[in-house]
Structure formats: C-alpha cells, structure tokens
C-alpha cells in the first residue's frame, strides 16, 4: 500500500537556528591581497547594492555605456562585446563553446592550472585538442608554437596572458597571436588577471577573443564577466553549422540582450551596475596611468620581498606583475604564514595549487601604496614568526624607496 511507504529521509519540520551574516563575517574585513577577488572601490560596492529592471530603458543605457567603456579597456573597435553571468571561467567556456565544435582543431598553450582549463573545455565540446606543455615557471616559446602550427592545421589557439596559478607572464603573446593569424587560426586569450593592469591592445595584436572576469584586474565583484569577439571570430560563430551545446553560453542568444535590448535570461543587474562603475573608474584613471601604477607597485613589492631575504618563483622577464609568487623557505609552513597574516594582521594572501608558494596580488585596488605596505609588513612578520630568517626592516625600507612615485 502506498500509504505504508515511508520516506527514506524525513524533511525538517522546523527551520534551522538563525545565524545572521554579521555573526559569520569577521568584525573587521580582511584586506584581500591574494590572487583574487580583490578589494572594490566604494562606488563599485555601492552600485552592487542596487537592483533595477533588467529589461528597462535604464538598463539599456547602462549596457550601452558598459560596451563603450569596454571597447576602451580592451582597446578594440569590435562591437561584439558580451557579458556572462559567471566567473572568468564562464567567459572562457563561452569563447570555447562558440568557436569549437566536433572536428575543429585546437592548440592549447598550457602554462598551468588556468590555461589547462581551455583544453578541458575544448575536449568537452568535441574539439580535437593538442596541448603544448610549457615547463613550470617558464613563458610560452613562440618558436615551439610556430613549429606546431607548421606541422598541423589548427582552427583555434588558446593561451593566457598571465598564468595566475604559477605567476608566469606570457610576454610573447603578441608574436604568438600573429603566428596563429598567419596560419589561419583564431586566438582566444585569457586576460582575467591582466586586463587593465598591463597592455593588451586587442586589435593591434590581432587577438580574436579576449576574456576577463570582474573580480581581478577590473576591481569589480565576482560573478559577472566580459569577453569581446573580433569580427572574424563572430563570422565563424554566425556560420557554424554544428549544434550549440550550451544555452546560457550561446553568443548568438546573448547578443539579444547585449546588442538588441532583448531577452536572453535575467541579467545579474547589480553585478552589471558594479561593472559599469569599475569600468568608469578605469576610464577616468586612463590606461597609461593605470598601467604605470600597477608596474610601480608590483616592482616595489618584488624589490622589498628580495631585500628582506625571500626569493621569487619566476625569473625576469617572465615574472607576472599582476600576481607575484614568493617561494616559501625550507622549514616554514605556508599555512601557518597565511593563518598568522589573516588572524593577526588582517591581511589575506593566497597559497598555490600544489606549489610551495604564497602569492600576492597586484590587481586594481591592490596596487595602492598603502595596501602594498600593509601586505609586505604582514608577510615579513608572519614569515619570521613561522621560522624564516629575514631582515624585515631592510625590506620595508626598500619598499618605501620603490613606492616613492606610487599612489
């Protein structure tokens, strides 16, 4: 009898005990100086508290402004600016899902964890994937890319500008993009940690797709990301005959909202408002001034780290300025360092994915003199507490010298 069947799990009869957010969050917010997310300016935070109609005239004006400002930040004249409700990885997957389908050949230049995601995503949509594994801590070699492009025909080449996981900068990105274009391949570039922190002129370098998240270089909130397709990439999307496996990530459907003021899905309106303010602040600062601020702060940080007696994971010129990898000395527990920094100094930095490193971000609001000073002091003192033999005063003095021209 059906009435004799008892459910395997009895649903709760009473709501759970109340636990408000102010009982979970720390009394004093941590200074976020890790690999992301980053601190957001007050105007970005305020915009993120507003909810409006996602299909109204006001939102239409905001979307037009976001696209206009994005063209400046991406340095492109392409009209194919799209957003996606999701992290930077969602923007990566949107790029892959629209340009890769069964039978398309993809060359994935792989420096670490995040560049490896391109290969995984390409396989999942049926792409025939070849991986160029770059030695750990090294940048992509354009000669190695050139050799593979000469051996086989590829439709798409993927790579990152900055590999956040191991703090490597692919400084030969412009040359690699030109090599791919000469062979008829389209390039997809992950610029999640680098866009607006260092030059990436999309049109000048011939990049076909640039993807970024909100929560790193742009100094916005996590959960809303941007990507731009070149005219050539968009033509490939328009002409594809293979079924599109993703509905939310279908660029042709997303165009209805981002280009035609139509409906795709309910947009993350608060996140888009926050992104609007983040882009506006970048435009007010201007890219040249922003690039120089990031360069000065990161170089001062790196100089201070070396001066106090620590070493950096990546050598010049492949060292990424946006996220700096610091070797943990032998006998020092990285977790103890991170815990001491957050509990005593209220500064949070990042560990690494299986590497004996800690990582300090220099993206957006992280690249401010007062934030760098606090982070370096917290790192030095916490390393000492964990057993490292350091000269913290010398490091701080070097940092002061390096930051003399920073703001």
TrEMBL record:
A GO biological process held by the record: glycine biosynthetic process, by transamination of glyoxylate
Record region (Disordered): 1-20
Domain named Aminotransferase class V: residues: 51-350
Listed Pro residues bias regions: 9-18
GO molecular function, one term: L-serine-pyruvate transaminase activity
Cofactor (UniProt): pyridoxal 5'-phosphate
Ligand binding (substrate): 359
Keywords: Aminotransferase, Pyridoxal phosphate, Transferase
Entry keyword Ribonucleoprotein: no
Gene3D superfamilies noted in UniProt: Aspartate Aminotransferase, domain 1, Type I PLP-dependent aspartate aminotransferase-like (Major domain)
Family per record: Belongs to the class-V pyridoxal-phosphate-dependent aminotransferase family.
Protein name: Alanine--glyoxylate aminotransferase
Modified residues (N6-(pyridoxal phosphate)lysine): 216
């Amino acid at each position: 009898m059906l009435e004799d069947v008892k459910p395997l799990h009895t649903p709760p009869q009473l709501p759970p005990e109340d636990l408000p957010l102010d009982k979970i969050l720390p009394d004093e917010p941590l200074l976020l100086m890790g690999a992301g997310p980053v601190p957001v300016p007050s105007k970005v935070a305020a915009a993120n508290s507003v909810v409006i109609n996602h299909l109204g005239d006001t939102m239409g004006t905001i979307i037009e402004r976001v696209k206009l400002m994005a063209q400046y930040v991406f340095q492109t004249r392409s009209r194919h600016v799209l957003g996606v409700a999701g992290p930077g990885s969602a923007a990566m997957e949107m790029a892959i899902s629209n340009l890769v389908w069964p039978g398309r050949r993809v060359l994935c230049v792989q420096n670490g964890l995040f560049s490896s995601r391109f290969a995984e995503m390409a396989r999942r949509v049926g792409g025939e994937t070849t991986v160029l594994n770059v030695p750990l801590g090294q940048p992509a070699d354009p000669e190695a890319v050139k050799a593979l492009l000469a051996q086989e025909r590829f439709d798409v080449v993927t790579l990152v500008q900055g590999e956040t996981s191991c703090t490597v900068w692919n400084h030969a990105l412009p040359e690699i993009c030109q090599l791919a274009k000469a062979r008829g391949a389209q390039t997809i570039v992950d610029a999640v940690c680098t866009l607006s922190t260092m030059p990436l002129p999309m049109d000048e370098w011939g990049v076909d797709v640039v993807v970024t998240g909100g929560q790193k270089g742009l100094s916005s909130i996590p959960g809303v990301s941007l990507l731009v397709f070149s005219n050539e990439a968009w033509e490939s999307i328009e002409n594809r005959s293979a079924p599109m496996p993703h509905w939310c990530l279908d660029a042709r459907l997303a165009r209805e909202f981002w280009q035609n003021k139509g409906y795709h899905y309910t947009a993350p309106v608060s996140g888009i408002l926050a992104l609007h303010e983040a882009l506006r602040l970048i435009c007010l600062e201007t890219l040249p001034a922003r690039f120089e601020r990031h360069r000065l702060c990161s170089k001062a940080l790196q100089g201070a780290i070396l001066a106090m007696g620590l070493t950096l994971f990546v050598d010049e010129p492949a060292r990424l300025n946006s996220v700096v990898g610091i070797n943990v000395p032998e006998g020092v527990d990285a977790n103890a360092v991170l815990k001491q920094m957050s509990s005593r100094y209220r500064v949070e930095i990042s560990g690494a994915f299986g590497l004996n490193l800690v990582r300090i971000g220099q993206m957006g609001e992280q690249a401010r003199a007062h934030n760098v000073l606090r982070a370096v002091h917290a790192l030095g003192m916490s390393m000492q507490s964990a057993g490292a033999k350091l000269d913290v005063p010398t490091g701080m003095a070097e940092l002061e010298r390096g930051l003399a021209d920073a703001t």
